[in-house]
Amino acid sequence: MKLLHLVDVDKAAQYIELCRNADGGYGTSPGAESHSAQIFTCVAALAIAERLDLVDVDTLCGWLSERQITEGEGKGGLSGRPEKKEDVCYSWWTLSSLAILKRIHWIDREALVNFILKCQDPELGGFSDRPNNMVDVFHTHFALAGLSLLGFEGLEEIDPV
Length: 161
Hints:
Elements: H1 9-18, H2 36-48, H3 57-65, H4 90-100, H5 109-118, H6 137-149
């Protein structure tokens, strides 16, 4: 069903633009901290509105790719914002924006796949936020969505928009 004509697309795009920060990311309101989940919301909305021209692609994708943890137990995982721990749900939130903007190759695919698979419970099934934590439906959903974006064998391709 095509209902975009019911929305003032220009006004919505202008508001999203007001939420953009100097780091290229988007906050929940003007001046709010950039966060991967909010970035996905804004980038996907702009993609639907056919207004990706408003995105500072290289700056934003640089910020998103810097969310990949490069050392320690969480190596390969993604965080939602600077100085925060990795969480398997950002395998969706961060990767989806990178996929929409055609920069998914800016992260280390193999390291992220390894991190996601470490979050899987081999006995009960499902995925947790981090290795050895309790699995839940929320993190299982986003782990599988992230693996799909990465082209993981056996999963259907998901459209990030």
